[in-house]
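Justification of resources, computational component.

The compute hours requested in this renewal are based largely on the per-chain cost of generating structure records like the one below. Each record pairs the submitted sequence with a full structure-token output. That output is archived, and it is also reused by downstream analysis tasks.
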Amino acid sequence: VTFELVVVNLYPFEATVARPEVSDGEAIENIDIGGPSLIRGAAKNHRYTTIVTDAGQYAAVLAEIQAGGGTSLALRRRLAGAAYARTARYDQAIAAYFARTAAGEDAVGSEEASKGADPLPRRFPLELEKIGGLRYGENPHQPAALYVPAGGGAEGRSLAQAKQIHGKELSYNNLLDLDSAWVMARLCPGPAAVVVKHNNPCGAAADADLATAMRRALDGDPVSAFGSVIALNREVDAATAEVLCEPDRFVEAIVAPAFQPAAVEALTTKPKWKANVRLMQIGGEGRDPAEPSEAPLQVRQIDGGYLIQQADFEPSLEQDWKLVTETACPEATWSELRFAWAMVRHVKSNAIVVAKERSLIGVGAGQMSRVDAVEIALRKAGDRCRGAVLASDAFFPFADSIHLAAAAGIGAIIQPGGSRRDEEVIAACNQHKIAMLFTGRRHFKH
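The structure output for this chain reads:
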């Protein structure tokens, strides 16, 4: 028996694992075994057999059959190449699923990892599919595009596949800023707003309602907030939109779980920037910090290779925090320190944030010296430093930062600890009657 035409639709593995609620059993059940074998066998015998693996190929095959009673060798050869590419993508998607789920099970901090098990995969399959071009890259002369893992993903539930409901085309920088803002906002408990400029927060606040949080976030650093990107972890209502539409506001893009119709109307008709503001709708409200990350591994390219690490999304372990000063820390101050510590982990190192009433009022980011970052954050906060708290993503190497914080009126400090001069730093806090907590965990973000 000879086969002149073989048409194969593989089990929908990629679509199955893209569903957020998919179980491991469902994923395994949707791994096709016989289909890839049929495809590869037919493709190998393409001199005599036409192999079809995509509905988009039907028209070309039908056209040749109708025209000449069969298919040409040239078409069969092209289809054979497409068939091998299809099985390669299919196997790649399966390998990526196992790598991803294994990474989640072997996360840093697990019992196995503590015994010396390697939490990172031996091989890391990476196949990407272009889903659209971008206006440009970091600069207008750099072409850029957006890619997602081949085979699709959770459409609408990630930033890469968020639904754009208004505005001009996104740029590379827009997406970087939206990503930074969304990561911060979705991890905030309660209604929260985050204002990002050049990949760093220039304002953030959590409050009882979204509109109040939005106003307080914008007031953190109004000058820097001009031309910013904003993330909100609740549906944007009309009251929040009105805050954004106030005079002298200018926003490049907004990402949120949803937008009420009245909010869309206000944001796209009232401001002078109405025609261009990008409104991005992303599935799911604010995430529980304890919920596993959607992407437990982070990949960055360097010259000739890649760096892969576990993402820094694990919740803070407050049971490990330690009060190291003579000055006590009231419960109300603990709440402020929790907020500041949640924020500083998302700021580029060296990172310092000043917070008050669950609002960012001063940020020092990406400085080569920590004391410079402290000076910038305190200057941004100005007189609002009185009674505020300060967070540092890593330890203080010297006591000079403490003296600056005390002079500005900072009431409490949270930092990882671990410096050879910790005792000097603690002594400086005791001298100025500043409470200080050690968390035991650093949060560098390069």
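Confidence is low (pLDDT under 50) at residues 106-114, 285-293. The first helix runs from residue 13 to 18.
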